[in-house]
Design brief:
Number of strands: 19
CATH class of the largest domain: Alpha Beta
Distance between the termini: 16 Å
Largest sheet: 9 strands, mixed
Shape: globular
Mean pLDDT: 97
Helix content: 25-40%
Number of helices: 12
CATH architecture of the largest domain: Alpha-Beta Barrel
Oligomer: single chain
Structural class: alpha/beta
Low-confidence stretches: none
Number of domains: 2
Radius of gyration: 20 Å
Length: 433
């Protein structure tokens, strides 16, 4: 078994130390440690491996946009050691057979821990519960359930879903969007700009009203609720109210909602079309403050790869979504670290520790100490990277950050004690284990 040593790394920005990794775990911390393979990490920050609660890997059904293997490669290059694959595939991941298939393909890729998310309703139709208990008991051990892309709009069905997941200590992750307030044509934040551009508006109350309803259902059932991709200041107010009363609710924000604002839509470039839509600057500031004070628990990418033939259309006709895995850490560094709202310990908490806890991943988001699993991310906080979609590991190219210099380069990613990325490059072909 090869022994790996990270020389001079700074765990969470603390004092420099050597880290010796053997048999998949952190074997020793100290100075002057020896190993078969040594990575010079002088001046680099060592974080627990990043955990993403919200990715779209598109397999099965849309392998032209992404596969479990290419999405895993993108995740590894972005510093992630665990990702959750959303259920809106074709066929929908609403049965043990499909979630186990996704888990097997993740294991075959061997780059990150791929955790399938099970659908809440059969076929994402919002009418009947999916096989929640069967998926929870399957070999995939599903602990996150979501109809993401579609809101569980029926209050009775949402209540039943919360009740069904409770015995498994699982969580319902809700895409909060009242379909009667934001119909299928809505594609921009409802306001002066959407009116001037002639784009159908999506009012933020469509999100806030569902979150308010769902936190009350979570209180009634005593179950865990997770709010996906929070985008408005008023939603933050609802979350603060609920948490102050001890309701078991957690929430995530995407990197793009921390940095991008609705004014980008004035170009009609469909790369900026996303669900929920980009909001005004005052919402962005409220989201940053909520992430900093812990009201919003986690950053989740909502990585949404699209083939060019689905994205390259007039704005109203283009597919929703942006890539996120390979740029997430840099965006968070720009929006949160460089603004002084979070330090690297805070980044680790919001991008590793809390997501792992929400998803009940026992081997992820662990302290950097002897005996812990070696799922780690090595970051150069002093360098920057100009985003070049042509160099992405993802099969798609729909990033809103193309040509933008983002800080904090991911140098290496270590999964189960094995370096999967070194100096930004994958160390094994996609799909090799």
């Amino acid at each position: 078994m090869t022994t790996l040593v990270l020389r001079g790394a700074r765990p969470l920005g603390g004092p420099a130390t050597d880290v010796r990794i053997e048999s998949g775990v952190i074997a020793e911390l100290g100075r002057g440690l020896a190993g078969d393979d040594v990575l010079d990490a002088d001046g680099l920050v060592l974080l627990p491996g990043l955990v993403d609660l919200h990715t779209h890997l598109r397999e099965p059904g849309r392998e032209d946009a992404e596969t479990v293997a290419t999405g895993s490669a993108a995740a590894a290059r972005g510093g992630f050691t665990a990702v959750h694959a959303m259920a809106n595939t074709s066929p929908v991941a609403d049965s043990a057979e499909i979630v186990e298939q996704v888990a097997r393909r993740g294991a075959a890729a061997g780059l990150v821990d791929v955790r399938p998310v099970g659908a809440v309703s059969r076929g994402l139709a919002g009418e009947q519960l999916a096989e929640i208990a069967t998926m929870a008991r399957s070999q995939a051990q599903v602990r996150v359930f979501s109809d993401d892309g579609l809101c569980v709009a029926d209050a009775r069905l949402m209540r039943r879903a919360l009740e069904y997941v409770k015995p498994f200590d699982a969580v319902i992750a809700q895409h909060a969007q009242d379909p009667r307030l934001a119909d299928g044509n809505a594609c921009a934040h409802e306001g002066e700009l959407s009116g001037r551009l002639g784009l159908p508006g999506w009012p933020s109350v469509a999100e806030e009203s569902i979150v308010a309803r769902d936190v009350m259902l979570a209180r009634h059932t005593g179950s865990r609720l997770h709010v996906c991709h929070v985008s408005s200041a008023a939603t933050v107010d609802v979350l603060r109210w609920a948490k102050a009363r001890g309701i078991a609710v957690t929430a995530e924000v995407t990197p793009h909602h921390l940095l991008l604002t609705e004014d980008l839509l004035s170009t009609y470039d469909p790369v900026f079309k996303v669900n929920p839509p980009l909001r005004p600057s005052e919402d962005v500031q409220a989201l940053r403050e909520a992430l900093a004070d812990g009201t919003i628990d986690a950053v989740a990418t909502d990585h949404a790869p699209h083939a060019a033939h689905d994205k390259d259309h007039a704005f109203a006709d283009a597919a929703f979504g942006m890539l996120g895995l390979e740029t997430a850490l840099g965006v968070v560094a720009e929006a949160m670290v460089h603004t002084g709202l979070l330090d690297w310990t805070g980044v680790a908490d919001r991008m590793s520790l809390r997501p792992a806890r929400i998803a009940r991943l026992s081997g992820q988001g662990r302290p950097i100490r002897v005996g812990e699993p070696a799922n780690l991310t090595v970051v150069d906080p002093s360098s920057s990277v100009v985003v070049d979609p042509a160099r992405f590991a993802s099969r798609s190219r729909n990033t809103p950050f193309a040509g933008r210099a983002l800080p904090a380069r991911v140098v290496s990613t270590i999964y189960l004690g094995r370096m999967t990325v070194r100096d930004g490059a994958l160390l094994q072909p996609v799909g090799a284990s």
